[in-house]
Specification:
- 42% of the residues lie in helices and 5% in strands.
- By secondary structure, it is mainly alpha-helical.
- It is built from 16 helices and 9 strands.
- The longest helix is centred in the C-terminal third of the chain and has 45 residues.
- The strands form 4 sheets. The chain has a 3-stranded mixed β-sheet, with helices on one face.
């Protein structure tokens, strides 16, 4: 770590360069990662392999830059900023590059190529990023170049999203550091700190945006003025929570597994045990091991599914993992993710196929939990949820203002006390800080639907509903209007005491003859 002048954005896992001394408040930060020298021969390129379905790993032993870090550096170097799409022509509207698709649409003015008819055209930024990447790396034997390029594009899509997220947080930390207030990135996220004036944002323009000041200004306006971005940011913060998800850090699972095997004397460890260890918290609670999130529930479900397939005498944690048990325990891949070993193993079998296989073998598969769905004509529920979101954002703003005022008050009290002690004067009178309201909570969509429809999936017969009730859930509704509860199993069918055939026959007898 070295002293740096200006806003130097670093990439995790990459080495920094020598910065310049900062007069006044020195800020210790990483230097801006740059590209290494190009290899002189094909043999000098680093070898990569397919680490996961969406990332490439470094196979070369010894020194070498990780592919993910090089991708991030290339994304910053060839960031389009504000651009006009190639398809729109030179007079088209300008767009802000926020996604990997923008790299495919934006021309790269740094490089030009000559076509067969002699015309000089500029390639897209995506083409330059991909082409430059393969100047540093080559594929391991047996790997298809087209498949590797598809994986590389997935990496670029993810790394760009992460880079734009981290550049905002690191810019805020640098801004406060220049003001004499040290705020690390974790505090910026926890306290939801930001910069209020445009001049403050312009003073911390990152080095890779210096030649694209208009793009940086547009990016700042997107962060500060775009209501959709603000709402999504608040919701994502609530979804992330504050408890963490695993203890791997920035180490990918294959490398984490390799280190565990090495620490075990080279003896193989079942993958399910490695996954469980990666989701174990380091601190004990009352002498007991605690796991992140729903790890314990997922492992217990996996054990039950494994034993239902292989017998009660089997040991799910010691034997090789079974992908059928993984799919059964998590009821398939809701939201595109398995509940256990997600992104570690890509299932090769689907849940409907497992149902057909298990039904013929006599194995009972648990039913998938019912999902609460919203009907297209339920406008009342949509209106209530939007109103709840507005109330949550308003309360969140009040909480942030009050919390910030309370922190500033306590800092001023502390400074005054320290100054009095230093001068030998009596301590100042203590003043109570402003009252901070409790942190508001936004229910998830499923929780809201459960409250709106009465707390029972598929029903609406709950009397304590703060969000309003439909006619069918009202206690004053007639028995015919109320929605009957159905707890699974065969459908109750027609109302009791009335035969569908008899009702149909009677309706035909009493209908007028035409």
């Amino acid at each position: 770590m070295r002293k740096a002048k200006g806003y130097e954005e670093g990439a995790r896992g990459e080495e920094g360069e020598e910065g310049q001394d900062v007069p006044g408040n020195a800020l210790w930060t990483r230097g801006s990662a740059t590209l290494p020298d190009l290899p002189k021969t094909e043999e000098g390129k680093w070898v990569v392999y397919l680490e996961k379905h969406d990332s490439l790993g470094l196979l070369t032993t010894g020194m070498g830059r990780k592919p993910s870090g090089i991708v991030t550096v290339l994304l910053k170097k060839y960031w389009p900023g504000l651009y006009r799409a190639v398809s729109d022509g030179p007079d088209g509207p300008k767009k802000l590059a926020l996604k990997w698709d923008d790299y495919h649409a934006a021309p790269c003015g740094v490089m030009t190529t000559t076509t067969e008819d002699g015309r000089r055209v500029a390639p897209t930024c995506a083409q330059v990023v991909l082409r430059t990447f393969w100047e540093f790396y080559k594929l391991s034997s047996g790997m298809d170049h087209q498949e590797a390029t598809a994986v590389l594009e997935k990496m670029a899509k993810k790394n760009l999203r992460d880079a734009l997220y981290h550049v905002r947080k690191l810019a805020i930390t640098h801004y406060f550091a220049e003001k004499g207030k040290r705020k690390n990135k974790d505090r910026v996220i926890a306290e939801n700190l930001t910069i209020e004036d445009d001049a403050g944002w312009q003073s911390i323009c990152p080095t890779w945006c210096v030649n694209k000041k208009d793009g940086w200004c547009a990016l700042v306006r997107y962060w500060t003025d775009d209501e959709e971005f603000k709402a999504r940011s608040i919701q994502n913060k609530a979804n992330r929570g504050s408890g963490g998800t695993h203890n791997q850090g920035n180490k990918p699972f294959p490398l984490y597994e390799k280190d565990m095997v090495a620490a075990n004397g080279g003896q193989e460890i079942p993958r399910i045990q490695v996954w469980q260890a990666a989701h174990k918290k380091k601190e004990l609670v009352e002498g007991k091991v605690v796991y992140y999130g729903k790890t314990e529930e997922s492992v217990d479900s996996y054990k039950k599914a494994f034993k239902s397939l292989h017998g009660e005498d089997s040991d799910p944690l010691s034997e090789p993992f079974d992908e059928m048990a993984v799919m059964i325990s998590g009821h398939g891949k809701p939201h595109g993710r398995t509940s256990i070993l997600n992104e570690v193993h890509k299932p090769t079998i689907t849940l409907p196929r497992i149902r057909n296989m298990t039904s013929s073998s006599g194995v009972c598969m648990p039913p998938r939990p019912r999902r609460l769905t919203q009907t297209s004509d339920d406008a009342r529920m949509t209106e209530a949820y939007e109103q709840l979101q507005e109330e949550f954002q308003h309360k969140m703003h009040e909480y942030e203002v009050a919390n910030s005022a309370s922190r500033e008050h306590m800092q001023e009290q502390t400074k005054a006390l320290f100054a009095a002690l230093t001068a030998g004067a009596p301590p100042p009178q203590y003043v109570e800080p402003p009252v901070v309201p409790p942190l508001p909570k936004m229910p998830t969509k499923v929780e809201f639907l459960a409250q709106f429809h009465g707390g029972t999936p598929g029903s609406s017969t709950h009397s304590n509903n703060p969000f309003g009730r439909s006619a069918a859930s009202s206690p004053d509704a007639s028995p015919a209007e109320r929605t009957p509860l159905h707890f699974g199993g065969p459908s109750p069918g027609h109302s009791a005491g009335v035969s569908p055939r008899r009702e149909s026959r009677e309706s035909r007898q009493h209908s007028p003859q035409l």
